[in-house]
Amino acid sequence: MSKKTKTVFVCQECGFESPKWQGQCICGQWNTMIEEKVIEHKDDDKRHRGNSGKNIKSSRLSAVNSSGEMRINTGIGELNRVLGGGLVKGSLILISGEPGIGKSTIIIQAAAEIAERYGKVLYVTGEESSEQIKMRADRVCKKISDNLFVLVETNMENIIQVQKELEPVFLIIDSIQTMYTDDLESAPGSVSQIRACGNELMKTGKEKNIPIFIVAHVTKSGDLAGPKIIEHMVDCVLNFTGERNHDLRILRAYKNRFGTTSEIGAFEMTEEGLSEINNLSKSFLEGMEDGAEGSMATAIYEGTRPLLLEVQALTSPANTGFARRTALGVELSRLNMILAVLERKAGLSLINQDVYVNIVGGLKPDGTSIDLAVALAIYSTCKGLKGSSKVLAIGEIGLTGDLRSIQNAEKIVKEASRMSFTKVIMPQKNAARLKDVSDGVKVVGVNSLREAIQIVQQPE
User: Fold this and answer.
1) If we measure between CA atoms, which residue out of 448, 303, 437 comes closest to residue 371?
2) CATH fold label, 283-457
3) Cys staple from 101: which of 10, 17, 44, 97, with CB 3.0 to 4.6 Å?
4) Average pLDDT over the chain, rounded to whole?
């Protein structure tokens, strides 16, 4: 069955729409009105995501406003960094993490800041009472604005009604698994309910041009609970990680339509809430000991900043028939490749040795720039060589034992200089381009893993 269409006349200069043709538009231009066919739709169609009450028609992409003024400052620098510069108006953002990791804490802190800066903020909770929200806000927020409103509700129709009456600039749903719509008879948290509620929130955010934060639960494996379609539906997926018995918290974007997914935000959990960590490299390296066997400093580049890390390795005689390979923060397949290169190209026999590798701090680097540090740390612990807390190693190891160049080596050297490192071992191709920008750090270029091992064996 075909949909109803009607004829309108649209000005090609200003976009003015008229039901009848006229020679001169209201903008003053002559003969700029052209005929267009538009499709009508029902205003009460909940499946439709367009602007209610308006005709369906396309628009010029060049005329769409995409200025930086569309972003909202959350008042939390690390959160702004991960989001790509702040909250984009009309965006739908999903945040997940283990229970007790700090999801609700960072959200209430951001809500208090936005309410103080921009206007009304609505915090919808289906898991806690308003008194519990107030107790957390008193503990972690510097000031509670009168523009911060809380609603204890799980019915989506009631939430949308309150949102229309209040007209907030920011909406928070905690959590999507507790919400339900009257259109479906299934229980809250079911696949159909999460899909329907997520679609309704997306429609509201796009129509009212307000950012919406959605809190989601995770499964035992750490994946988002519920249908995968909710991840495709939202504009940004944030994940909060960290150990509850440690203070460090890492916020990472796994999907971001308005920014990069390589940025991370670092926080420290305190009694007053989450505080930003400005010098993340110092936090990862503060426990590194000088002269320790099996320890090597390395670096990665996350988003717009370099991060210095400590790689620790340990080898011990295998007590069973098969040697164990355990890696925390390093892909096990990558570790096995590095061990194979060490055996064939460096003459290091590990067939009867258990190997353990750990990235201190709980971070899981995605790149390959830490390969050289992992190999040198394993060699150090196996041969009993004492490491230096002032030496940093970066580089990707190939299957032939050669070192491949990495990106952003110049910025990593500058960060190493700021952190008082005296020597950086890196691929020769990178070192050749850094002779004039070493910033007082001795840059040593090597072509292979064997050459790098010879460098660390030399006394300081």
Assistant:
1) 448
2) Ribosomal Protein S5; domain 2 (3.30.230)
3) 97
4) 86
